[in-house]
Amino acid sequence: MHASLLIALIPALAWGAVGIVTTKMGGSAGQGTLGMTFGAMIFGIGTMLLYVLPNAGAEFAFNPRIWVVGFVSGLFWAVGTAGQFIGFKKMGVSVGNPLSTAGQIITNALMAAAVLGEWQTGKMWLFGSLAILSVVIGAVFTSLPDSRGSKIANPDHNFGAGMIAVIISTIGYMMYFVFPNLLNKVGYIPNALHNAPHDTGLYYMTAIVGPQSIGQVLGALIIVIFFLKERKIMFEKWTWRNILTGLVWATGNVFMFISAANPQVGQAVAATLSQMGIIVGVFGGIYILGEKKSKRQLVFAVIGSILVVIGGVMMSNLGKL
Q1: What is the pLDDT of residues 8-22, one digit of tens each?
Q2: DSSP string, 105-149
Q3: Is the pTM of the predicted complex or chain greater than 0.85?
């Protein structure tokens, strides 16, 4: 179980570092997104050729049902990403980011608990809900703006439109994450395919990342051309530099799905533990990127990080209840 939880923490480390890596690589939002999906595709196809094909065979690597699930999951990710970018533009990152994170934690964990049936007792629901609450409050605390700082006028500011975009984004991200297990639950993916080998789900979840990355690239192209209007600059050097961002993100992605499929961890725990990346993002931003925080913001960031950790520890111990 301890090894399973350590694996479930890899997405937090990788995804928490994504913001730092993409800032170092440079480029616009569109270039970052597109470069990220190119990196994810390299990782996804590499996983298929170097791991899935030799270990699980063509039955998994080229299974039409797995390709459908993976590709659609990748498109959902694109919807989530487009909504998030629009939400950040309309509300600002300091407001949009904690709302988006909180929404993802709540929907992913509750979908796993209610729809996938991972929480089976009253105690699990009680402590699971408290764990989600702790992580959500912590996420908000780590991202609090400095109320005494100078206000920069945002000509695109529209809280209502931003909130709608964040809600659409949250649904997109939830479906990207829940979809592979949901299609097993409804019978589209048979248990024998979903659970192999030895009830770990390793083959199914690693087989998904190849077709998923193709869905992400297609979705990213649509976002960059039609939503971000960056057609003219989408193949400049910053896009290629952000392939590294994609490789970091994809490492977190594959371990996320492996953890979600592992019965010892489950989707609700995997979703919550992945949000520990907030801590990496906040303190990495301060100490690696040199982002300025007021004393008040720093205090809230520390309190928020502690709450995130408490929530994560509670969530990871639900199986003992």
Answers
A1: 888 888 887 877 787
A2: HHHHHHHHHHTS----SHHHHHHHHHHHHHHHHHHHHHT---TTS
A3: no
